[in-house]
Design a protein that fits this description.
Pfam families: Spo0M (PF07070). The protein is mainly β. It has two domains: 134 residues, Immunoglobulin-like, CATH 2.60.40; 115 residues, no CATH class. The protein has four helices and 15 strands. 25% of the residues are buried.
Length: 255
């Protein structure tokens, strides 16, 4: 009977299970996530080589005019050393994991989840998937708010594969696409922004200012993307009192 149960466990039937329980489901980028992993033994004793946690998201990669959805791992950590899990045994393992500053914000189509897995040789590895909501850092939130105060409305937010020259730790950036509804309406088609790097004290951003071209040659300007300007700048805590004015000046120079 034991051999039969072991055979079933190798296919994931009657095997160990894992369940991660976080203190909450909403976190700010850069915040420490705390909780516990509950591991329950199955019908037979099993050797667990490790338990790992990973923070994941998806991004869009374009290839040959086709869009593909890829999974990106922002961080992966090993939680335990090898151990033996007896049949029906329950283990509770406390965890803490820092959410990277570059974790995409929960906006638009963006999703972020915590994946927990048990590494068990010669068996289907049990896993658990928990989605979380990610809020921007305080600085990033004020940057987004400043753009909104200038009359820009967020139309879309999506993680896309980053060009090599703008690639940081990860193969993607989260792009925020805004449409002008205030004084820039009629001058710009759209404003796009990405966070290239972040900390509690500063954020490097890239603005793509898409001008609304008029008159003769406008078609060719758009075809050659001559109507777009790129501005790379760093925002610090010292900029916050005059942040809307700073963005106003940057954008006005390129219309």
């Amino acid at each position: 009977m034991s051999f039969f149960h072991k055979a079933l466990a190798s296919f994931g039937i009657g095997s160990a299970t894992v369940d991660t329980r976080l203190e909450k489901d909403t976190y700010r980028a850069g915040e420490v996530m705390r909780g516990e992993i509950i591991v329950r033994g199955g019908q037979v004793e099993q050797q667990v080589d490790s338990i790992y946690l990973s923070i994941n998201t998806t991004y869009v990669r374009e290839s040959n005019d086709h869009k593909h959805t890829e999974v990106a791992t922002l961080q992966k950590v090993k939680v335990t050393e090898p151990f033996t899990l007896a049949a029906s045994e329950e283990k509770v393992i406390p965890i803490s994991l820092t959410l990277p500053f570059e974790t995409p914000i929960s906006a638009g189509k963006t999703q972020v989840w915590i994946q927990t897995g048990l590494d068990i040789k010669n068996a289907v590895d049990p896993s658990d998937k928990d989605y979380i909501r990610v809020e921007p850092t305080s600085l990033a939130a004020q940057i987004l708010d400043a753009i909104g105060r200038l009359g820009f409305r967020l139309r879309e937010a999506e993680c896309e594969q980053a060009p090599a020259r703008f690639r940081g730790y990860y193969p993607f950036v989260q792009e925020f696409e805004f449409v002008p509804t205030g004084s820039f309406r009629g001058h710009l088609d759209e404003l796009e922004m990405v966070f290239l790097s972040q900390s509690n004290h500063s954020a490097e951003i890239l603005l793509q200012i898409d001008r609304k071209v008029r008159g003769i040659g406008s078609f060719f300007a758009e075809a050659l993307e001559m109507d777009e300007s790129y501005v790379r700048t760093t925002i610090t805590l010292h900029d916050l009192p005059t942040l809307p004015e700073k963005f106003q000046q940057i954008i006005s120079k390129h219309i």
